[in-house]
Amino acid sequence: MKVHFIKSSEKKDIIEELREIYGIEELPFLLIETGKDKIRGFTGSLSKDEISELSKITFIEGIGLYLIRREESLRLSFDATQLLNDQINKSALDVSEEQAIQWLKGNDLDIKCLRGIVVVMFENIPLGCGKSTGERIVNHVPKERRLRK
Predict the structure, then answer these.
(1) Structural domains present in the chain
(2) Pairing between strand 30-33 and 92-94?
(3) Is it the case that residue 97 has pLDDT exceeding 70?
(4) Residue 53: how many other CB atoms lie within 10 Å
(5) Cβ proximity of 14 and 27 under 8 Å
(6) Sign of the torsion formed by the C-alpha atoms of 109, 136, 75 and 143
(7) Residue 51, Cα to own-chain centre: how many angstroms?
């Protein structure tokens, strides 16, 4: 697996896009792209050279925390919405308790709002990102994080 370290100029572009979409001002992580358009954040003590050497001998797609998926725009992962919650001040959509339960069960929400990526919130708690079609919000909560019956 090829490990791509995101350069500071590219990181600035990513932060600018995150600022426009979510209001996020900083990402205090080493950003690594490891395939499937996933960007991970790493804060450990390994250097870039050590990570590169490690990637030659073992599968390290799981290094760091999965933060962002590159799509038409940048979509925050479920964990990133929690980790960066204090910075999110745009594209947040408050939902009722009933809607929050449906969302956490993996259901889409029939809510009219602007098209694009939104962070679904319940009482200032982020419940993950979804993609709004304008008429409904498509759920992106990972299956392993969903509520069971």
Answers:
(1) 1-88 (3.10.450), 91-149 (2.30.130.60)
(2) unpaired
(3) yes
(4) 11
(5) yes
(6) positive
(7) 22
Q: Which two tokens stand for residue 129?
A: 């990102």
Tell me the one-letter amino acid at 32. I
Give the integer Cα–Cα distance in Å for 137 and 116.
Answer: 9
Whether 39 contacts 92, CB under 8 Å: no
User: Each residue of 14-55: pLDDT tens digit?
Assistant: 999 999 999 999 999 999 987 778 999 998 888 888 887 877
**CA–CA dist 66, 34 (Å, integer):** 10
Q: Which residue has the higher pLDDT, 61 or 97?
A: 97
Determine the Cα–Cα distance for residues 16 and 23; give it in Å rounded to an integer: 9
Distances (CA, A) of 111 to 72, 103, 118: 21, 12, 11
